[in-house]
Amino acid sequence: QVQLVESGGGLVQDGGSLRLSCAASGRTFSNYAMGWFRQVPGKEREFVAAISRSGEVTNYADYVKGRFTISKDNAKNTVYLQMNSLKPEDTAVYYCAAGSLYLQRKVLTSAQQYNYWGQGTQVTVSS
């Protein structure tokens, strides 16, 4: 089992920044590829960003590319999502996820590929 706890969400103005953190416990963090997803009421959970086990490879959804940065600190068992130039349409509950993976440099971009999820943290961007 892997337990994931997100933090860092909140209310920010249009154009502002936030950094989300996701602390993992329970299993060897470096064995997992990590991802961030988001969801608004009435819509499906959507992919935001992913990072490989090693942290060397990343992937972003087009709507956040150039504004968001995912990073992974295996020594601290934590994955981060730095969010800059936030827009009102970024408002959502953000979830981190962990996927068990053999390959060091593979990223996972589908929610179905992930084994564990955090409880989510609310991000609200006001216009």
Structural features:
seven-stranded mixed sheet; 0% helix; four-stranded antiparallel sheet; single chain; mainly beta; 11 strands; 127 residues; globular
User: Low-confidence segments, ≥5 residues, pLDDT <50?
Assistant: none
Total number of helical segments?
A: 0
Oligomer: single chain
* Radius of gyration, CA atoms, in whole angstroms: 13 Å
Query: Can you give the helix content as a percent range?
Result: under 10%
Beta-strand percentage?
over 45%
Measured between the Cα atoms of the first and last residue, the distance is 40 Å
User: Got a strand count?
Assistant: 11
What is the 3D shape? globular
Helical/strand content category: mainly beta
Element string (H = helix, E = strand):
EEEEEEEEEEE
Q: Give the biggest beta sheet.
A: 7 strands, mixed
**Residue-averaged pLDDT:** 96
Task: Summarize the helices and strands and which ones pair or pack.
Blueprint: E1 3-7, E2 10-13, E3 18-25, E4 32-39, E5 46-51, E6 58-60, E7 68-73, E8 78-83, E9 92-100, E10 116-117, E11 121-126
Parallel strand pairs: 2-11
Antiparallel strand pairs: 1-3, 3-8, 4-5, 4-9, 5-6, 7-8, 9-10, 9-11
Structure description:
- This protein has 127 residues and is mainly β.
- It is 0% helix and 50% strand.
- The strands form two sheets. Strands 2, 4, 5, 6, 9, 10 and 11 form a seven-stranded mixed β-sheet that branches.
- The protein is globular, with a radius of gyration of 13 Å.
- The N and C termini lie far apart (40 Å).
- The mean pLDDT is 96.
